[in-house]
From TrEMBL:
Residues 1-20 form the signal peptide. Residues 710-782 form the Fibronectin type III-like domain. Pfam families: Fn3-like (PF14310), Glyco_hydro_3 (PF00933), Glyco_hydro_3_C (PF01915). One of its GO terms (biological process) is cellulose catabolic process. Belongs to the glycosyl hydrolase 3 family. One of its GO terms (molecular function) is beta-glucosidase activity. This is Probable beta-glucosidase G. Its EC number is 3.2.1.21. Pathway: Glycan metabolism; cellulose degradation. One of its GO terms (cellular component) is extracellular region. It is found in: Secreted. Keywords: Carbohydrate metabolism, Cellulose degradation, Glycoprotein, Glycosidase, Hydrolase, Polysaccharide degradation, Secreted, Signal.
Amino acid sequence: MFILALSLLHIWMFLTSGVAQNVSIGALLPPGINSTQWTIAASKADKFISQLNLTEKAGIVTGELTGTCLEYVAPIERLGFPGLCLADGPAAIHLADKASVLPAGLTAAATWDRNLLYQRGLALGAEFRGKGANIALGPVAGPLGRNPLGGRNWEGFSRDPYLTGVAMDLTIRGVQDNGVQACAKHYIGYEQETQRSNTTTADGKNVDGYSSNIDDRTLHELYLWPFADAVRAGVASVMCSYNRLNLTYSCENSHSLNGILKGELGFRGFVMSGFFATHSGVKSVLAGLDMDMPGPTAETNLGETFFGPNIVSAVQNGSLSEARMDDMLRRILTPYYYLGQDKNYPSVDPTTELVIAANYGLLPVDTPTPSGRNVRSDHARLIRQLAASGTVLLKNVNSTLPLRSPQVIGVFGNDAADVSDGLAFDGSTGSLTPPFGFNIGTLTIGGGSGGGRNPYIVSPLEAIKARARQDGSRVLYVTDNSLLAQDVFTSVYPSPDVCLVFLKTWSREGADRIAFEADYDSTAVVNNVAARCPQRTVVITHSGGINTTPWATNPNVTAILAAHYPGQESGNSIVDVLYGDVNPSGRLPYTIAQQEADYNTQILNITGPEAEESWAWQVNFTEGQFIDYRHFDAKNITPLYEFGYGLSYTTFALENGLSVSRTSRGAISPFPPTINNNNNTSAGGNPALWTQLLNATTTVGNTGSIAGSTVVQLYVSLPQDAVPSGTPVRVLRGFEKIYLEPGARQTVSFPLTRRDVSSWDVESQNWRIPEGNISVHVGFSSRDLPYHTAVRVL
Ligand SMILES: *[C@@H]1O[C@H](CO)[C@@H](O)[C@H](O)[C@H]1NC(C)=O
Ligand SMILES: *[C@@H]1O[C@H](CO)[C@@H](O)[C@H](O)[C@H]1NC(C)=O
Ligand SMILES: *[C@@H]1O[C@H](CO)[C@@H](O)[C@H](O)[C@H]1NC(C)=O
Ligand SMILES: *[C@@H]1O[C@H](CO)[C@@H](O)[C@H](O)[C@H]1NC(C)=O
Ligand SMILES: *[C@@H]1O[C@H](CO)[C@@H](O)[C@H](O)[C@H]1NC(C)=O
Ligand SMILES: *[C@@H]1O[C@H](CO)[C@@H](O)[C@H](O)[C@H]1NC(C)=O
Ligand SMILES: *[C@@H]1O[C@H](CO)[C@@H](O)[C@H](O)[C@H]1NC(C)=O
Ligand SMILES: *[C@@H]1O[C@H](CO)[C@@H](O)[C@H](O)[C@H]1NC(C)=O
Ligand SMILES: *[C@@H]1O[C@H](CO)[C@@H](O)[C@H](O)[C@H]1NC(C)=O
Ligand SMILES: *[C@@H]1O[C@H](CO)[C@@H](O)[C@H](O)[C@H]1NC(C)=O
Ligand SMILES: *[C@@H]1O[C@H](CO)[C@@H](O)[C@H](O)[C@H]1NC(C)=O
Ligand SMILES: *[C@@H]1O[C@H](CO)[C@@H](O)[C@H](O)[C@H]1NC(C)=O
């Protein structure tokens, strides 16, 4: 049950499994940093810095690979500084034993549930803290998902910057409420894995990582937007990315680091490099890089650092000022004091070094393994709830779902079963196999630093069998896709009452996907099962993002669930949805096209001699803001399932239309009032951008016979004649997930801020509210917007 207190700070009461939790989360949260406390922390940092000699200073800005953590800032024992332990990643404390694998960012975004996004951050942060990691390397807003096949899209949230921005904000607050530092990554324009960083040709020639060439407005309205939310939420650090931006490497790009991040957005924490994303010393430091990771790696033969001793000599010979050196240190150490990490922070878990060694195959088999700390707490419950809430019901003809006591259940597909090679940890050989990963076994999460070591996996088959035992029903299954694709499976008798086909799509860091369809002959698998199971075939996908689904229009496929990457409780959460214990309420955080040609952006993949030329690796973001639904809307392309779409076992309707009112009297200026002569000392940029200007209100009712949640969505259209070309038809600017009993209704309000109704004006380098009528639309998806109303803001 929700009680939505419509104050500036909404207070939600949320009933989960009978336990009431109060979460102070609303559409408009106050800034995440208390500046009084920040100032106190900064003076503690200064006091500490004043005691350091130059070598020690250089040590703090330079990581070490071979420490007790994956990435590590060495301690300074004479001053009692314990060092900083950094650990991947966005959905799990990567590599760690006795830790949870949570649903991926993509899955969390598909919940469209602010409370769950915050709870996920809180649980993640608790696990990092429990293991003694000071800095959690996540969450992810880059890639945003420009390319449907981007290998790391699932680590982030949505192809929409507003939804991603909300998810960044709430995840960061959740993580940092544990006293753990979050790291917003990867900044910026990091939208593909192919040639993400420099390579060396056979004859020793350097080939640079690709350059994302992005115009200023697109940068602000699309790719930078969620980073502004992250900074406003108080994120401790930002990680610069591998790629180049406008031909300059992200970690030495003064315009984007000093100018935009630290200047315009008022970011006062530190910028750290992605692993091996630093390409220079003093040049990077002067451009705004504050910490080099992983630092010297001579022992592992991976190269030298541009920082470390080079920083010492640069200060000594005057090419780097001591003031900038101290600025770097202040930026690194202020969050440490601000979050209270100087007081009683847990020590680094004793198994940390071993799990890292094991990951690199460096651990002798007979190494005794000390007992690590179990940090999983009762997070399994939240993981199960999140995954069920992030499952999107795309099709449900004739109420195929929820299942009604089927006697014989058919389960099909290599994604249904337990993994045949361990717990599907990314380091296991099978899972690294390009391009589709391991064959038999369900996918809980993607690969690379965003993955995790599953403590266990509840596979769909296991959970369905457990449920069937309770119900006295039978489960028949075929999990070998080659049998299914060749249509040579004969063991299925009697004919099942329902056939559940589980498909998977592997996605990982370091490589982009090469196909839109789910892996392992998915289309043949579905069609062959469906032909034997007409009008009762249900397809469930576990995927890192966008798939084309040629089988979706097969009339024998009567229900489809997109379950994304669900984490360790996969089977339990899908059973909850299949049997109706959970009424599905996930919504697509991306668009599913009818055919792959409907997507307008693709991975730049150069082959032949040009692949050895740095100049050739330029990705021109000529589509501007038109990715995902913005592209489909502008080009009037009908998607198969649009952004924001998702079904329920009940029905909802809006009542009383949409009313939009101004929340302040008096004239509103087109540009935000400036503060401190435009010196943005406020995290996130000019605070006036977050002033509420409009209040949009509607009423939603549950018109069906089952309790459930829906997501009411608000979109804004700026007047096309008052803004330069390149303005999307409409953009998401509000959403609320509302739980309703049958017959119940509730008023829903959306605060619209100045930023929400502005566009980035390149000439004045500021956000500007256009003249003329702004239209506001409300509904249940980007294409189901029954009400709209026009309002003049200026
Ligand atoms: C929720 O808030 C109410 C009122 O402020 C308080 O009485 C209750 O203890 C809180 N519950 C939890 C679980 O924090
Ligand atoms: C900020 O912190 C100070 C000092 O702890 C406290 O007095 C003040 O109430 C806080 N401000 C806000 C807005 O929470
Ligand atoms: C700085 O202090 C360290 C001890 O932490 C010492 O080993 C080192 O020699 C000192 N360096 C200089 C330049 O004084
Ligand atoms: C990438 O370039 C840096 C210098 O900018 C160099 O140190 C490094 O070895 C190069 N890496 C590869 C894989 O070529
Ligand atoms: C990238 O370069 C183009 C062309 O010079 C320029 O218009 C654009 O503003 C630059 N992008 C950013 C983010 O500065
Ligand atoms: C100063 O030191 C840096 C780092 O070792 C070096 O790259 C640079 O060339 C030096 N500059 C001068 C003027 O000696
Ligand atoms: C890039 O092209 C190569 C060579 O054709 C191919 O093997 C590879 O799969 C392609 N990568 C992607 C992401 O399309
Ligand atoms: C649906 O199933 C029926 C019965 O098996 C079959 O005749 C028909 O061809 C199937 N349709 C498709 C599109 O596969
Ligand atoms: C829906 O159910 C009705 C009645 O059983 C049946 O005639 C019809 O073919 C079904 N439609 C689909 C699309 O399965
Ligand atoms: C990107 O733009 C640059 C500069 O206009 C041009 O040289 C290059 O060919 C373009 N690259 C691609 C892949 O279109
Ligand atoms: C911005 O204001 C802060 C705090 O008042 C001050 O420390 C800083 O020097 C100012 N920066 C500029 C560029 O004026
Ligand atoms: C927005 O409108 C709702 C419904 O009329 C009202 O309860 C709420 O107080 C309004 N919020 C603001 C900030 O004006």
